[in-house]
Amino acid sequence: MRRFIILGVVIAVLGFGAARYFEIGLSPQTKRDRYLTKARDFMTAAKVNEAIIEFKNALKVDPAHPEAHHELGVALLKRGDPKAAYAEFVRAVDLKPNFIQARYQMANLLLLARDLPKAKQELQKIQEQDKDAQEARYLAAQIAIASKDPDTAIQQLQEVLTKEPGKAQIYVDLGQIQFLKRDFKAAETSYRKALELDGKLNRAKIALAQLYAATDNSQKAEEELLAAIKSDPESEELLNVLGSFYSAGRRTAELEKLYLDFLKKKPDSIVAKKQLADFYVSKNDIVKATEYVNDILKAQPSDTQGLFYRGRLALGRNDIPKAIEDLSKVTLNAPQFAGGFYFYGQALIRSNKIQEAKKNFAKATELSPNWTFPRLSLAQLHLATGDRDLALEESDKVLSIQPNNPAALITSGAARLGRGDGGKALELFKKARELSPRDPAPLLNIAAVYVIQKKYPEAIKEYEAALKLDPGRNEALTAIAQLMLRQNDRKGATELVQQHLKNSKNPAQVHQLLGQIHLEGKDFVKAIEHLNKATELNPNLLSAYFLIGNTYAAQQKFDVAIEQYEKVIKKNPKAIQPYMMMGILYDIKKQPQKSNEYYQKILDIDKNFYPAVNNLAWNYAEYGGNLDIALGLAQRAREANPNDPGIGDTLGWIYYKKGIYSTALDLLKESSEKTKNSNPAILYHLGMAANRSGDKVLAKESLTKALASNQSFPGVDEAKKTLAELQGK
Is the predicted pLDDT of residue 585 greater than 60, yes or no? Predict the structure, then answer.
């Protein structure tokens, strides 16, 4: 037995060696041509990504092959990557300066990029090589169109026709320019002439149908398309045009039937399956969409559209890692496809990667400036992260495209409200209410304006109207309760929420609200009772566990509070709030090393979460840590939020400890002014910095105010001692 095994191994090794020998024995030209043949076969089968890989393999063997560079450029163009395609056309022309086709492709891309001077330079080079080249005439016509000179474009194409009168394609090009001139009769004549020369030319049939659709003759457009499909029943190009026609007319039943019928004739049609996948994804028919998406990716595992649909389905079922995996590939494979960046941004939001999401929404708006979805999402993200100016800029761009977009009106209004322009905000919110009378969102925002204006009865009226429209809108109920508490009507707030509990579709949230009301009233027993009930009804309600922790912390029961926060962390390891509370509690317990562990865990999740950066900086400074590290952290926090007086205080106190008193004094003055000179800890720091800077008057004044507050703060004994010294006691 052992001999046979050894013999088998020898044969296997020899076989492998022979295979390697024959592979090594191939000439570079043969290897290159094999790769090119495979690439061209993939292009014929519409497997563009696979073709690109093989073209690149061919170029590894022979980097100086101009035709391979040209064909790779064409494939990249089909994949939607004009930038990379242009680079390949440039290489092809560098290697073969008289390569007219590649130069023509280059010029076309320059025209797309609106670089008319460079496109004209390429035209001149083509004309120098062959003044009668068809590409030169085509390019001259395109440049004339870009220069808003359709008559010259028509003249160029007519000159081509004098030499090649049987070219049906040129009549289609001619008709399209006539169409742009709104000379519809001439355009129709040109399209008819093209079909007379080549009755199977689908491009002419499509152009004719589009002409009828554009001139409000949709019936004739449909007739032309149906006749075209009848004469060429397996044309996927015609199928898609008719599908787009039905989609534009919102004829969804006919759209669905069209593609289903086509699959009966051509069961392996990836084009039809992609259209049906898109149709069912948009209808949120997960089962049918999944069936077609699986078929697409089974046939073509790296297909960009297939990955796009699968990513969207993953997003819909909240499988965020899978959505991110697929949609990130889409953005790499199709860098000019705005939809890929938009949905990838949506997935990143769900993963709490806010800055990355912003970048992807911004890219989507760059690629498709008039598509309002990504721009509105970007505006809303800016608003959520406190970038009101950017939120206003993006939401107003949406309104310039869609003046009656309710979500954009609300976002613009909220940004203005944050900037203190309540009057304009109210105007925008009221307009949104008129446009969407059944939507509670405008009412909630109108109420928010009234709260800021201290018009509490008007605010309550709006919140009640929102609750009437949507009884499950707990933020409206919460807002009413808070307003009643603000007016010292705790009993009324409790009764209101108790009443709402009877018919609530989300009783866990209502019990949580009752717990909050009792917590504010320091009725800790009832607070715990309701909050425990909330977690019993909804074990995944993390905010309730968090509030239970707050309730125990308020009673100085820190260890029990920490247990509650640990529960939240166990259920959601990326939730920042419980880590922050744990850090604060360990600070209260005078265990800075332990608190620093939790602040560091927060920074592992979000390195820019400035409250954790600030507290970590404070602990390093206050408890004998490295002051340079503390300074770096505090500066990071200050960059993230330059207007936070607490951060300014931390940074100022670190400069004080480093002996840089003038800088410390400036920062602490600014922080104290922002708190209206009412924060005793900041006043203490200001007094100490003023004393070391030689401003004894300010030092006395600040320390006196700090101690007069009768509030405890770290350093109170030092404040008393320094003030006594200043007063000469």
Answer: yes
Alpha-carbon dihedral 359, 360, 366, 372, rounded to 10 degrees: -110
pLDDT in tens, 489-537: 889 989 999 988 887 888 998 999 999 999 888 999 999 899 889 888 8
Q: Dihedral sign, CA of 155, 157, 162, 168?
A: negative
Q: Which residue do the tokens 């130069």 mark?
A: 103
Query: Angle 55-122-171 (CA atoms, 0-180°, nearest 5)?
Result: 85
Token pair recorded at residue 323? 């959505």
pLDDT tens sequence across 130-155? 877 777 777 778 888 788 888 888 88
**Tokens 């009848």 map to which residue?**
230
Concatenating the DSSP letter of every residue in 253-288 gives HHHHHHHHHHHHH-TT-HHHHHHHHHHHHHTT-HHH
Q: What is the pTM for the complete model shown?
A: 0.64
Round to whole Å and give the CA distance between 690 and 332.
Answer: 56
How far, in Å, CA of 629 to CA of 634, rounded? 9
User: Which residues, 6 or more positions from 135, have their beta carbon under 8 angstroms from its beta carbon?
Assistant: 100, 101, 103, 104, 126
Give one DSSP letter per residue of 473-519, joined into a string. Answer: -HHHHHHHHHHHHHTT-HHHHHHHHHHHHHT-S-HHHHHHHHHHHHH
- Which of 356, 362, 402, 404 minimizes the C-alpha distance to 379? 362
The pLDDT of residue 17? 38
Measuring CA to CA, which residue among 356, 279, 278, 287 is closest to residue 324? 356
Nearest to 52 by CA among 78, 26, 29: 78
pLDDT of 339: 95
Asked if 36 contacts 58 with a C-beta cutoff of 8 angstroms, the reply is yes
**Percentage above 90 pLDDT, the chain:** 43
**Distance separating alpha carbons of residues 679 and 713, to the nearest angstrom:** 10
- On whether the CB atoms of residues 151 and 174 are closer than 8 A, the answer is no
Structural domains in the chain plus CATH codes: 643-729 (1.25.40.10)
Q: Would you call 655 exposed, middle or buried from its count of C-beta atoms within 10 A (0-12, 13-18, 19+)?
A: buried
Q: Which residues does 329 contact at the CB level (< 8 Å), separation at least 6?
A: 302, 304, 307
In 521-609, which residue ranges form alpha helices assigned H by DSSP? Answer: 524-537, 542-554, 558-571, 576-588, 592-605
- Using only C-alpha atoms, what is the Rg of the chain? 35
Mean pLDDT score, 284-289: 90
Query: Rounded to 5 degrees, what are φ and ψ at 678?
Result: -120, -5
Task: Select from 61, 59, 60, 300 the least CA-distant residue to 72.
Answer: 59
d(CA 101, CA 129): 12
| For residue 18, pLDDT beyond 50 | no
Enumerate residues 6+ apart whose C-beta is below 8 A from 628.
Answer: none
Q: What is the pLDDT at residue 572?
A: 85
